[in-house]
Batch of 4 targets.
Target 1
Amino acid sequence: MKILTIFIITAISLLGQNMQKDPVTVDFVNLQKYIGKWYEIAKLPNWFQKSCNKGTVAEYSINEDGNINVKNSCYESDNSLNTANGLAKVVNAKTNAKLKVSFVNILGIRLFWGDYWILGLGPNYEYSVVGTGNRKYAWILSRTKELDKKLLDEAIGVLKKNGFDVNKLEYTKQ
């Protein structure tokens, strides 16, 4: 009987984890206000930014076709500039809060796309909280190199509320 009870409790627990709701995005993003330069304040560690030592910046501009050019850059430990150019496209045109982004371009074909969900925005677009549906990646971005503590706490709260592990956040040197 004990084994059956443990099995049922474990199964319910695992089922609950698999049924976790997606992170909640903002209601609407004005892309004209969103484009421009953003400074990375913090991120969840990831393999593709492993060589970034400081000065991580994202710059967005809208193409004629409505897609968004993405230019990410950072300085490596030897002070060399590392740049990655990509393309983002809106997935949910009703809110503009869910996008897909690709940095792999082979002969004009984009093979791999990743989530770019805008989970939080300052009232004046002074900060942005970005994450992925699987909660593996997240970033806190700011229009300035430093983010006021109150706004940073708000941004961290957005990640926490959406089930991201904020204890793993790494803060970026600008």
Target 2
Amino acid sequence: MEQIRKAFYPSPIGVIEMTGTEEAILTVHFTARKKAETSEWTAALEAGLRQLDEYFAGERRTFALNLQPRGTDFQRKIWAALLEVPFGRTATYGEIARAVGRPAAVRAAGAANGRNPISIIIPCHRIVGATGGLVGYGGGLGRKDWLLAHERKHAGPAGGLFT
């Protein structure tokens, strides 16, 4: 069995903990730690940390990483739909439910969004309420607002399926 390693990233909005194997990223989430710790990086973690650095510098709009989020088939479909929401744009829970062919499953889509184990890279922060308001984010609404403002600041021309 492959060993899971941890890496820490000191983002502008708090320390991020990333876990992964040599080949894949498993989790990315904010941690209560006040400062990043040293860790034993794998190739996958090193790539993830580098791409987070580029994202926070405003130089990266999409991530090119091997992601292996663990969840149900429905959750993985929702998380795949989140990856389709363009940088600097938002979508509603209803739009995500429709995107996976389950238009009545808005609450289930919201629950799956809330269980996203790979924050920022799988952009659950881009999902807003039906009226466009900020609702729910495991990292806190202040961070969600910051991430959306950061992306709007660095986004190019509008386009795509979502607002």
Target 3
Amino acid sequence: MNLARVSDDAAWPIPAPPVALKPMPADADPGFEVATVKPTAPGTQGRLYGFRGRQLTTLNTTASNLITFGYGVHARQILNGPEWIEQDAYDVAGTPDVEGAPNQQQMRLMIQKLLADRFKLQLHRDKRELPAYAITLARSGPKLTRSASDPSGLPSLLFRGGMLPARNASMAEFAAVMQSAVMDRPVVDRTGLAGKYDFTLTWTPDDSQFRSFGTRPPAPENPSVPGLFTAIEEQLGLRMESTRAAVEVLLIDRIEKPTPD
């Protein structure tokens, strides 16, 4: 194979790397400048929430999934909804109407507004005692590293199968991500720990976990990796205990199927 240097006038320019978006103003109240809601293609596996550039995207998300994300609750905290909110899946793509990258709370506000606009969602809040998991301190005490990151910065809590590398995360944020992605019931933080932490949790998932993703992630390659409850105590110095707790519930007063774009 012969290679020759291309002349300057025929060379393709090297694309510039993507420019990181500046954060939205902390007091911004964003919605969608434009958004599409389309039925997910039959047979689609898994579930995705993401933000690339200025576009928020979800894949294979039901109305129930969108409510749990938008309001920070577990699916069991959504009451009085019709069956289709857990069955019909949609792909959402939209651009915020405020410049900059939204923080997690601003992303939730965007989804709340989308649900009100496209799904005609109306609801009210109440308190109910429900089966739950409580995260508490183990007798050994916490085995967590206090984060050196900006405490006002976003946490990083991204699952890689049965592994959770957490950075700049509070215990409330840890409980919230375990509730939204892993566990089959609400999760409450009762550690009493303040501040942000860095840690990595590795475990072998069982059949009850990760149901919100639609598919169970593969188990770690190392067969000696323990189950979740043992791993939390051994690796983090915390405990996750089955209990009952008074938690907020969302009672749906009205919701409609969206008209596809």
Target 4
Amino acid sequence: MMKWRSKKNKRDDSHPLEQQRAEKLAELGSQLRSTREQLGFNLEEVAAYTKIQRRLLQAIEEGKLEELPEPIYTQSFIRQYAHALGYNGAEFASAFPTAPSRVNIKPVWRNIPGAQLRPVHLYLVYIVLIFCSVNGLSQMLTRSEVANSNSSRPESNNPPPAKPNSTLSQQQQRVRPVSTSKPNPSQPVQPVRIGLVVKDKSWVRVVADGKTAFEGVLPQGAERTWEAHEQLTVRAGNAGGVLMTVNNQPEPKQMGNPGEVQEVTIAANPQS
């Protein structure tokens, strides 16, 4: 009777942690869904950006713990989802509790009766070690004799050392300046400059010359400027709340309608 009670109590110890995970998942999922809806994104767009299946994102928002994988993987999904919406993903996901599993490794050889060494076994081990040592020493002496015999051969049999190909090196030095492309000073390129003024909170991504210069949520009233030598690409999740100026234009223009996802690419032009 005492054994049955102890097993039952041990089994019920995991329920508080499971309940804590479910409550925290419902809280974090509700916050992520509210932020996503404010930014004007749907689950398909978030799934395409984070590479996480739509059903898993929906399970996180609805707090359905039973439809999600192990807690460590669920925490990773929450981190990626939060990062895509502009949060600090690691700090946001740390609120979801995970319990690391402990594995106790017990030595098995102690339980084997035949693992105990006896004097006869020690003698056999000594004999094997001596044989291996003598064999290794014999191979080393043989290799040393072969190396000495090769080094004692007349030098006339050895091919002369290869001389550096001075002609080839000179040709390479002549070709290198030709392969280097230099910009034509008669046609200078004017860098492209874009300024953003945020009237309403919006997610924004800016790519300058093929590299991501910024990605995140800009609050209301923020003003930012970026510059590139080739081209600039701006993508806004709430195009109606973002005003854009190109190359210091006097009047900024609205990127699109409120709640609309809009992307604009502007290339640099050569100076006249």
